[in-house]
From TrEMBL:
Residue ranges annotated for the SCD domain, each copy included: 313-398
Gene encoding the protein: LOC129326580
Protein name stated in the entry: Cohesin subunit SA
Keywords for the protein's UniProt record, in alphabetical order: Cell cycle, Cell division, Chromosome, Chromosome partition, Coiled coil, Meiosis, Nucleus, Phosphoprotein
Domain of life, per lineage: Eukaryota
């Protein structure tokens, strides 16, 4: 019998989920079965080895020697561990050699096997054994320990491996968390597979000989159980894996044994019936003995399995290491499939059910995969009724798991449950799961598509009665109707491409049956009572377009999937065949469909997009060329009849594709296009002639306005994709725009397409200039048109209609972005077209942003009905979307230096107030401008705060700013938000923050020269706002900024009192300690005096002291400084180039010589600031290494 696992009474009472983690150090040698170099001291007084059997080379090692090069050396494989890990020989021969060695010398072979499992854990140490029989029972229990010896620095473990008590000793290295099972790389993955294979082959090869000798399995199970109870992670992980694989191998063995026993039972009954009435039968006695032998083996194997399950699984399935828990659950799923008669019951299923709630996705994934193997076998489903009812809701919720793979496997499991377990999923459950076909994660959507196709489309179609109509396409027709009904009921009409993509892998034959789809659309409603409704026809046309796109492109829709898939040769061949099939079918059918649905704008729009996926070369073949004429005829009729922008753009796009120069029939299509445009332009001229009657002003008939509006929209849609310059449309549109500017009576329906058409006309002229540069006279005319068009758009900023204002601003932003970045050609002619907005135009655009973006509209209507309220909320969202587009277009001009960067100051003012609506746009603008120019971006930020502060002072009556008011606190909070945008890298933002403090100090002391006595400057309270940026300064920069601040004080003794509180606040934010403050005051003498003279002076922040200046002289000169009272304009101020440290040292070598003094305890990088006292002053802050 197998010895039960011994309880370790001397170990701490660890909980199953709270085992203390220790890591076994990696083995430094493959054959390091023991420490033989003498570096490890023996235990003094700790233990006495009675019968030591140090791991020895095996007697049969010569039969499995193998060589493996490692770092140029040849390693000789002599131990079992080395042979298995190298994997050079077949595992069956390795096990056979070990079995032979076991039969010759059992103790040596067993110790080699024990050492194999120890070394698989990555343990570099010594394994010794003493016989269990030589010790008293009480002494045995005392040796079941795992302790650290402080004297030797070794950790050792003693445990029972019947018939020995093993002692494993290894050096402790807590920093090394690597052992073979968790090492990366293909070699170690193969090593793990070799361990599993060795365990399985060992059981298989020993089943007829030594498996039942009451020694081998007792020793292995005792060893693995003892190691699995260790606090060392490597021992637990390796032994759990080996034990679980051992139980799996025993499950296979007992299954084969049951089959053999069943055959023997039948043979026994046959022999028994043959010998009825006879006294004795040797054959029957022999079968009886064989049957008892099988029963005994079956009982022994069951005992082995129970010992492993209780000794290892029950202890480790809740281990703190998720990999160990995953191994236990994964193998349990295998046991249930292999040997369901024992393991497939609620006593074992509960463990999988409990682990469905595990916090680690790896464990949850193994649970779902194990259940899939069970639910896919219909004969096993009957045993899962209680489990299904108990854990179905949990599995349903796992489709929303944060781990995508877990969600996918949960959906696959539910699909199996739906197929093989009747009534396990209700109709409400299925409807919930069907909606996952719209998810953006494609594997989950495909899994949901499988459920949708097999449960809804196929099963319900088969359950329906057979239709009266017969034909080959009947099954597909019924399934298509079911799919259409599902699509319409889901009310997600704009996501048809997601449904098709989800079903593509499961119902490809259905979705590629375009003959059936078009037959459903073309059938006569009078002949069939079950004809499609109007909504169903629209849905089917959307499905046709989605399937055609999926078949030709072969890529998932936008938002689902990452990079485009690289198609294989086979997939490319299938794609080409589908493209030919689509072209050959729809070339014939598409004109018929366009003729039938020519009045429906939505259907026609989708149908006109289908030719984009044609193999258009087939149109040039003889039999199919006549269908091209039919297509052009139908498209022309549709363009003339419709004014919907989607229809017109689809038709324009179709003409553009068919006019490609690579096609043989391009001239024919170009002629048809010219005829259509001629007709449209002639119609427009006639309508405009009627509209503008000489001497009578405007003939504003409603019908005439509609015709002009619809004709303009058609021409504008075609001008977007086609060059219509020869019709000189710009002059006609310009005439309309000028008339509106003079009379302001043009209807909005005419004005909007005219503005857009003129924009397209100018862009096509620019494109033609890039291809073939014209004369300078023509360029001058074009430049005049560009400037005038910008002027026209600016005039429409004040139009009474909001749509016109927004369209004019949007078009102008796009137009300026294009014309301001014209690349000059070799002769410089294109450079004449480069145009930047004037100061007046920039002011108008900024005023438009202030009035239309950041001005809140009052909601005067209240107590609306629910439907009206929903409609109004939708309008608010549309308005917000348009505002975001307008602001993004304007900010793009700032980022690309089309508009001066300082204009962004007006936008930054609304960073907090409009953060929810526009915060992301403003923040991105701030980040991009800072990346382009750090100094100018910093000046823009401080300019924003200065303007807000001046506005606050003016609101207070022109006196000193009230620091306790709400508006002042809002400015202070805005400054804090600005400081947060600089991040944590103070070195990277050093120059920007220094510029902010410099500009802020100068602004705070503006007007100080005119103040008398102890009166502070009028802007002194701005220092409190500036203090929000102090924490972004480096420590040496804080002292330098404080020194710069002291230069502006007329007399430090006079700058006291409540009126100077802001100054004290700011100084405290810079210098926290008195030593730093005294250091800054003492360094004041190192600064040159502030003078109003225009000659530049040099000031240096270095570890050497500068030329000393009398403090009184500095004070006297400070009072004579003239501070400009006005803020800088929006014009871009010039910025001096930052100098490198080398150039600074070369320019001022004498001031850094050894003759000069050095600052006390200075250890920060050298900073140098070069300043010229003028309006556009810059701080030059450069870091350098410490001078010695």
């Amino acid at each position: 019998m197998i010895a039960e696992p011994n309880s370790i009474v001397n170990l701490p009472n660890y909980k199953e989920n709270g085992i203390h983690e220790e890591i076994v150090p990696e083995s430094t040698a493959q054959n390091g079965s023991c420490l033989r170099n003498g570096s490890v001291k023996t235990f003094k007084g700790k233990r006495k080895v009675r019968k030591q059997c140090e791991n020895r080379r095996r007697n049969s090692s010569s039969s499995r020697r193998s060589n493996q090069p490692q770092n140029g050396d040849v390693v000789e494989a002599v131990t079992l561990f080395e042979v298995v890990s190298m994997g050079k020989r077949a595992m069956q021969s390795v096990v056979d050699d070990w079995v032979e060695a076991y039969k010759k010398n059992r103790d040596v072979a067993l110790l080699d096997l024990i050492n194999f499992f120890i070394q698989c854990s990555g343990c570099q140490g010594m394994v010794t054994a003493e016989m269990f029989q030589s010790l008293q029972n009480c002494d045995v229990m005392q040796k079941m320990t795992e302790t650290f010896d402080e004297e030797t620095g070794l950790q050792y473990k003693k445990f029972m491996a019947y018939p020995w008590i093993l002692t494993v000793t290894w050096p402790v290295d807590m920093d090394n968390e690597d052992y073979p099972l968790i090492k990366p790389g293909s070699y170690w993955k193969k090593f793990k597979a070799n361990i599993c294979e060795f365990t399985a082959v060992l059981i298989q090869q020993c089943q007829c000989s030594i498996l039942y000798d009451s020694c081998l399995m007792d020793t292995i199970i005792s060893l693995l159980t003892g190691l699995a109870d260790s606090t060392v992670r490597a021992f637990r992980h390796t032994s759990t894996l080996a034990a679980m694989k051992l139980l799996t191998a025993l499950a296979h063995l007992i299954l084969n044994l049951d089959a053999s026993r069943g055959n023997l039972e039948r043979l026994y009954e046959v022999e028994k019936n043959r010998t009825t009435g006879k006294k004795t039968n040797y054959r029957l006695d022999q079968l009886e003995r064989k049957r008892k032998e099988y029963e005994q083996k079956h009982l022994e194997i069951e005992n082995m399995m129970n010992a492993i399950f209780k000794g290892t699984f029950l202890q480790r399935y809740r281990d703190v290491v998720p990999e160990i828990r995953a191994i236990c659950i994964e193998e349990m799923g295998s046991w249930m499939k292999i040997y369901p008669s024992t393991f497939l019951n609620d006593s074992y299923l509960k463990y999988i059910g409990w682990m469905l709630y595990d916090k680690q996705p790896e464990v949850r994934l193994k649970c779902l995969q194990g259940l899939q193997g069970i639910y896919e076998q219909k004969e096993l489903v009957s045993k899962l009724d209680l489990f299904t009812s108990r854990f179905k809701d949990r599995i349903m919720s796992m489709t929303l798991d944060k781990d995508h793979e877990v969600a996918v496997q949960a959906m696959k499991l539910l699909t199996l449950m739906s197929q093989n377990c009747e009534d396990s999923l209700s109709s409400e459950d299925c409807e919930t799961l069907y909606q996952f076909v719209y998810t953006t994660h494609r594997p989950l959507a495909v899994a949901a598509g499988e459920l949708l196709y097999k449960r809804l489309i196929v099963q319900e179609t088969e359950m329906e009665a057979v239709s009266k109509r017969s034909g080959k396409q009947e099954p597909n027709a019924s399934q298509l109707k079911t799919l259409i009904i599902f699509f319409l009921e889901s009310e997600l009409h704009s996501h048809v491409t997601y449904v098709v993509d989800s079903l593509w892998d499961w119902s490809m034959s259905l979705l590629k049956d375009w003959e059936c789809m078009t037959a459903l659309l073309l059938e006569n409603a009078d002949d069939q009572k079950e004809a499609l409704s109007d909504a169903q026809e629209s849905a089917l046309i959307e499905i046709i377009l989605a399937t055609v796109r999926e078949a030709v492109e072969g890529h998932p829709p936008v938002g689902r999937g990452g990079a485009k898939k690289i198609l294989s040769t086979k997939e490319k061949k299938i794609q080409l065949e589908d493209s030919n099939k689509i072209t050959e079918h729809f070339i014939v059918v598409l004109p018929q469909l366009l003729a039938k649905y020519s009045k429906d704008a939505e259907k026609v729009t989708n149908l006109l997009k289908i030719p984009q996926h044609f193999d258009l070369v087939l149109y040039g073949t003889g039999p199919l060329e006549k269908h091209l004429d039919a297509l052009l005829r139908e498209v022309k009729a549709i363009v003339i009849d419709h004014c919907d922008i989607d229809v017109l753009e689809a038709g324009s796009r179709l003409y553009h594709i068919l006019c490609s120069e690579e096609l043989p029939f391009c001239n024919k299509v170009a002629l048809a296009r010219a005829e259509l445009v001629d007709q449209l332009v002639n119609t427009l001229n006639q309508l405009l002639g009627t509209f503008f009657k000489e001497g009578e002003g405007v003939c504003a008939e409603e019908e005439g306005i509609y015709h002009i509006y619809s004709t303009l929209r058609r021409i504008t849609a075609f001008h977007n994709a086609h060059d219509l310059s020869k019709w000189n449309l710009y002059d006609k549109m310009s005439e309309l725009l000028v008339f509106e500017m003079e009379h302001s009576c043009l209807p909005v329906q005419i004005l909007l397409p005219a503005l857009h058409c003129a924009y397209f006309a100018l862009l096509w002229q620019l494109a033609s200039v890039a291809k073939k540069p014209p004369s300078k006279e023509n360029l001058f005319v074009l430049r005049t048109h560009l400037k005038y068009y910008c002027h026209v758009c600016a005039c429409f900023f004040s139009h009474s209609n909001r749509d016109v204002r927004e369209k004019a601003f949007m078009v102008l932003c796009d137009f300026l972005m294009i014309v301001s970045h014209q690349d000059a050609s070799n002769d410089g002619t294109l450079g004449l077209l480069e145009y930047f907005p004037t100061t007046s135009l920039q002011s108008k655009m900024l005023l438009f942003i202030q009035d239309h973006i950041f001005t809140e509209e009052e909601d005067k209507v209240k107590d609306l009905a629910e439907e009206e309220d929903r409609k109004r909320n939708g309008q608010k969202l549309d308005t917000l979307h348009m505002k975001r587009c307008l602001l993004a277009s304007y900010c793009k001009l700032i980022i690309y230096n089309v508009i001066e960067v300082t204009a962004a100051a007006e936008i930054y003012k609304h960073y907090m107030k409009a953060y929810n609506d526009f915060g992301d746009i403003i923040k991105e603008t701030l980040s991009r401008t800072r990346h382009n120019d750090k100094i100018q971006s910093a000046k823009t930020l401080i300019l924003c705060l200065q303007q807000l502060f001046q506005k606050h002072v003016e609101s207070q009556g022109g006196g000193s700013a009230d620091t306790f008011s709400a508006s002042f606190n809002n400015i202070k909070e805005l400054a804090r938000r600005f400081s947060l945008t600089f991040g944590w890298d103070q070195v990277k933002t050093r120059e920007s923050v220094a510029m902010i403090h410099k500009e802020g100090i100068e602004f705070a002391f503006q007007g100080a020269a005119g103040m008398e006595g102890n009166c502070p400057p009028p802007n002194l309270n701005f220092l409190m706002i500036l203090s929000e940026f102090s924490n972004k300064l480096l420590k040496p920069d804080k002292r330098l900024v404080c020194s710069y601040l002291l230069r502006y004080l007329p007399d430090p003794a006079l700058s006291r009192g409540d009126s100077w509180h802001s100054l004290s606040w700011y100084r405290t934010s810079l210098l926290a300690s008195e030593d730093e403050e005294s250091s800054a005051i003492s360094s004041l003498n190192e600064w040159p005096p502030v003078s109003a003279a225009k000659t530049p002076f040099k000031r240096k922040f270095s570890e050497g002291s500068l030329h000393k200046t009398n403090h009184t002289e500095t004070t006297n000169r400070t009072s004579d400084i003239h501070y400009p009272a006005h803020l800088p304009s929006l014009a871009i101020r010039s910025r001096k180039r930052l100098k490198s440290l080398n150039s600074c040292l070369q320019e001022y070598p004498s001031s850094l010589g050894p003759a000069h003094l050095k600052r006390k305890n200075s250890c920060q990088p050298v900073i140098k600031v070069e300043e010229i006292l003028a309006e556009d002053t810059d701080v030059d802050v450069v870091g350098a290494d410490q001078e010695t």
